[in-house]
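Re: beginner question about structure tokens

> Can someone show what the tokenized structure looks like for a real chain? I only ever see the sequence side.

Sure, here's an example I had lying around. Input first:
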Amino acid sequence: MNETSRNQGWAIVAGAVLLGLLFLAGILQEWYWALAIPIAVLTFFVLGLVAWVGHTIATVQVEAEPPSVEAEPLQDASNG
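And the corresponding structure tokens:
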């Protein structure tokens, strides 16, 4: 792992901690937006995933399977 990746990891951790503290401060201050913004972001994220899955299902190209040729069962040598 190189130093750039490590620094990016610590930056993500610091950002998550900062956003968590801001969220907690907003909850303690009883600010409406402290709950409304994260819920809105989560809702739009989930709706985006659902739309992406639906689009993928609707536009996928499926090749028809060729008809299979069934082999005749082997005859037992003792029967004839």
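Each token stands for a local structural state, so reading them left to right follows the chain. Residues 32-58 form one domain.
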